[in-house]
Amino acid sequence: MIARALVLCMFLIGIAGLVAKRNLVKKTFALAIMNSAVVLLFVLEGSSIGDEAPLLGGPGASFVDPVPQALMLTAIVVGVCVSALALALAYRLYKAYGTLDVDELKRLSGHE
Amino acid sequence: MIEFVIALACAGSAYALLSKDLLHGTIALSATSVLSALLFFMLRAPDVAITEAAVGAGVSTIIFVWAIRETDRKDGR
Amino acid sequence: MRRADIAGTLAGIVVAILSCAVVAPVLLPDVPWPEAARDLLAARGLGETGASNLVSAIYLGYRAFDTLGETIVLLAALAGAVSLIGAARDTPLHGEEAGVAADRGDYRGPADKRRRLHTEIMDSIAGKLAPIVLLFGAYVMLYGHSSPGGGFQGGVVIASGVIFIAIGRRSGGIGRIGPRLTVFGPRALSRMEASAFAAIVLLSFPVSISAFEGLRAGASAVGVSVPAVSYIVALNVSIGLKVGSGVALMCVMMLGGESE
């Protein structure tokens, strides 16, 4: 219960940072933090039904649930893809406009 | 023990978002990834731990440091 | 600027409270996690896929199409990032003409940056640690079916080894196999990524699975025993090579490696 509350707190830090910060790199930090929090939540929940790693050949037979772990492998890879593409876009915007601040970018590109 | 490590990861991620120097924020994010990998090992998930350590503390930190190097290093405020 | 800061922080707090109101009733109560999936996999995982690492049995055996989709997402994202970085290198900096950029006194081109990366520590350590890292990546990739590891993990470690080589070598160093081709340069890496991705797509079709079963039956009739887990090993190796060369290509392009 406390572990889940702390993971929720980490997710809320991520989403508050995504909205509140104006620098594009800080927003990418926030996306990575939200990804980490969700992955942590699933593995935490799946580990509550056993106490051995899901590798056959061990002594006992009460494994941890392997399904959330398999799903979270995909989630981590997709998270790093999002970070890489976001940073490539930020680099391109910096080359074109000279700043990474979203308010400045809105003003410079004429969308205000 | 698990709650303590999650609290440390929360503190690391909060520092990453609040720091004025983006390089300090990147190192804090890398520390959060390493703490997450430790947490996955403690929760009996070795595959996820290897993936998070290799991806979070390796490739993700490399691309963040590259992005900071090519653009501003300060937050601007 | 201060007013915008305060408005941003207030907006962040409001969004956090709203998200908490939505997510917390799902998250915080104590609901028991169902055990049916774990029991079924522990009883039948080894027999049906041949892998004793149950997580690998799931994402390479029972749900291999999910892994194919993830490989496609990785390919699309890395191709997009590489093309954005390449296009951004060619555009002039903000507020300048196209031809003026190279004449400025403080133009920081790729060759300049690479010279600054070459300190003594980088030269003596990075290039020499690279073969050990590549060996460890190959081990993690090949033993994914029976111990923690697999294609993605081994691929990312191999990419780290290739980045070591790219940082720690002088021009024309390790891996040169021709006057215009290096094993760890952008062209060779992109070709390796494309062929490994083609191998993954070919291995995922049901046609190839039945062909593999026919091959196993034919081999056992001759007397050579091919275990069922070799399908998972083949998938691991192709995924590892694809992920490793893709991530290494993006990082080599980031470090300014256009000159072969």
Structure description:
- The complex is a heterotrimer of chains A (112), B (77) and C (260).
- Chain A is mainly α.
- Chain A has one domain (2-50, 64-108): Helix Hairpins (Orthogonal Bundle), CATH 1.10.287.
- Helices cover 72% and strands 0% of the residues of chain A.
- The longest helix of chain A is centred in the C-terminal third of the chain and has 32 residues, at 66-97.
- Chain A is elongated.
- Chain A starts with a helix and ends with a helix.
- The mean pLDDT of chain A is 90.
- By secondary structure, chain B is mostly helical.
- Chain B has 3 helices and no strands.
- Chain B has helices spanning 2-18, 22-42, 46-70.
- Chain B is flat and about 40 Å long.
- Chain C is mostly helical and 260 residues long.
- Chain C has one domain (50-89, 116-260).
- Chain C has 10 helices and no strands.
- In chain C, helix 4 runs parallel beside helix 10.
- Chain C is globular, with a radius of gyration of 24 Å.
- Mean pLDDT of chain C is 81; it is low at 96-108.
- Chains A and C meet through helix 1, helix 2 and helix 3 of A and helix 1, helix 2, helix 3 and helix 4 of C.
What is the secondary structure topology, with strand pairs?
The complex is a heterotrimer of chains A (112), B (77) and C (260).
Chain A: H1 2-20, H2 24-46, H3 66-97, H4 102-108
Helix pairs in contact in A: 1-2, 2-3
Chain B: H1 2-18, H2 22-42, H3 46-70
Helix pairs in contact in B: 1-2, 2-3
Chain C: H1 2-27, H2 36-49, H3 54-62, H4 64-90, H5 110-117, H6 120-142, H7 151-168, H8 186-204, H9 206-222, H10 230-254
Helix pairs in contact in C: 2-3, 3-4, 4-8, 4-10, 6-7, 7-10, 8-10
